TrEMBL record:
The keyword Nucleus does not apply. Residues 65-100, 113-148 form the EF-hand domain. CDD domains: EFh (cd00051). It comes from the Eukaryota. The keyword Calcium applies. This is EF-hand domain-containing protein. Signal peptide: none annotated. InterPro entries: EF-hand-dom_pair, EF_Hand_1_Ca_BS, EF_hand_dom, Recoverin. SMART domains: EFh (SM00054). GO terms for molecular function: calcium ion binding. Keywords: Calcium, Metal-binding, Repeat.
């Protein structure tokens, strides 16, 4: 064990060295079954899927190219997975984000602001104005937008 610190700086370093990050406490599978009403097998399958999806997502966001990050984002907005983003899909995402940020659902003023945002974003991304956003339109519009490209570059710093 290290000797006690002699100066205030050494004391801070000593304190930091002694600090340990708490490890998550494992929860017994039986407890999870009771708390969630899932079977052991269902929990195991979901856990394996969650670990895989979370690692792929982190890999894409932290180490992927700008194109990979944009493709991941497109898939996030493409709720039904048909390769196109409709106005209703974009609206669902925007409304969910507004609710997460504390805006009240079904309030006339808040709903109007969300609809206006959906309209602005849709006009910007639906380059040929045909009522759907394809991956090609999404990539082209995002790559032309300085704010989007700067935001994506934020992830370029290593952990």
């Amino acid at each position: 064990m290290a000797s006690p610190p002699e100066s205030p700086i050494e004391e801070v370093v000593y304190e930091l060295e002694q600090t340990r990050v708490p490890k998550p406490i494992p929860v017994a599978l039986e407890d999870l079954c009771r708390q969630t009403k899932f079977t052991k097998q269902e929990i195991r399958v979901m856990y394996r899927g969650f670990k895989t999806d979370l690692l792929v997502t982190l890999s894409t966001l932290l180490r992927g190219s700008v194109y990979e990050r944009l493709r991941w984002t497109f898939k996030l907005y493409d709720l039904n997975g048909d390769g196109r983003i409709s106005r209703s899909e974009l609206s669902e995402i925007v409304m969910a984000i507004h609710e997460l940020m504390g805006r009240r659902p079904h309030q006339p003023e808040d709903d109007r602001k969300a609809r206006d945002q959906v309209d602005r974003v849709f006009r910007k991304l639906d380059l040929n104005q045909d009522g759907i956003i394809t991956i090609e339109e999404f990539l082209e519009a995002c790559l032309k937008d300085d704010l989007v490209t700067r935001s994506l570059q934020m992830f370029d710093n290593e952990l």
